[in-house]
Amino acid sequence: MGIEGCRGIRSIKFFSVPTVKEIIVGNNFDMERLELEASNLHSLYIIEWKLQCNLNLLPFKNLKNLSLGTPNVTEKWLEEHLSGLPLLENLHLLSCSKLERINISSHHHLKSLKLVLCANLVELMIDNPKLCRLSYWGKTAISFSLNALGLLEAEYTLWPRYGTWDAEKIEFLSKMRNSKVFKLKIFYDQDVIIPEELRVTLSSPLYNVKHLKLIICPPFTGYEISELLDSFLWISPLPELLVIESNRHKSDPDFDKLTFELSYEKPIYKGENPSCCKFLPFPCWRHCLKTVKIDSLKGYGDEELLYKYFSENAKTLEDFQFHVGGIA
């Protein structure tokens, strides 16, 4: 059942609907009150900016998916409801302005957590070994601790409103270095460029991450591809897969994608520890890169320029391949 984008509706009550598994209530401009009674509910999505009533979700013991964007979600409300929803697997909190602290611990079924623009958040504590996916869009000047041994994918959105790269953002990213895949979403190509003064004074935040994905809001202009790679390969200095794509559907004619597959010889230092690796427990890609395979979806990017970049920066490069439309 779904009610979305309706004007004039101020109050809704769902009752005696035991067979309903999913309810969606979103962007109803005048909505102020919502009551729910659906004993077998599995998924609930509520995005209502005027909604002021205290939602009671505790009867929904079977709830697995919860997405909330309302002004009345507080730390106390969230703590009470998370402990009372034992099967909850996916939690999405959007613009919950009253939330200042979030503590996710001992929620054994929670697999995915997405936090978007919770503007007043000052503390985020996650201690959940079963958490698989974490997505964060917001300010990084917060107290952040993460213990999620099973983390498969982490995602961070860099929004210009929260400023450019600084030491706090680098420190924030470093808490997600044990994820298998890391996605960075940016609005402009140049947003990924990390200042040189940070790169020479701080450690690479995601040195354990092997799969990186950079998602750029369209159009993807290929802004100084060598500078993009310099910053991206500093964030994760020994990746196996890099993907750079525009954030549009694949059927859109402006959608573009570059995929880099990288392989290495045994990463050991040869001689003195170089300055580019001084904060790392192993050599960076410049000292052990063996092969590069590049797949350019639309043929964007000068093959010669990319070959020059890798051959000049990688001291051990043996093979370079560039393909349009797919890696052979």
Q: Span between N and C termini?
A: 47 Å
Helix percent band: 10-25%
Strand content: 25-35%
Task: Assign the structural class, choosing from mainly alpha, mainly beta, alpha/beta, alpha+beta, or little secondary structure.
Answer: alpha/beta
Output the strand order for the largest sheet.
Answer: 1-3-5-6-7-9-11-13-14-15-16-17-18-19
User: Would you report the number of β strands?
Assistant: 19
Low-confidence stretches: none
Number of helices: 5
Would you list the SSEs in sequence order as H and E? EEEEEEHEEEEEEEHEHEHEEEHE
Q: Which overall shape is indicated by the principal axes computed on the Cα atoms?
A: elongated
The major sheet is characterized as: 14 strands, mixed
Roughly what is the average pLDDT, rounded to an integer? 88
CA-atom Rg in angstroms: 23 Å
Topology (SSEs and partners):
Layout: E1 2-4, E2 11-14, E3 22-26, E4 33-36, E5 43-47, E6 65-69, H1 75-83, E7 90-94, E8 101-105, E9 112-116, E10 123-127, E11 133-137, E12 143-147, E13 153-157, H2 167-174, E14 181-186, H3 196-199, E15 211-216, H4 225-235, E16 241-246, E17 257-264, E18 289-296, H5 303-313, E19 319-324
Parallel strand pairs: 1-3, 2-4, 3-5, 5-6, 6-7, 7-9, 8-10, 9-11, 10-12, 11-13, 13-14, 14-15, 15-16, 18-19
Antiparallel strand pairs: 16-17, 17-18
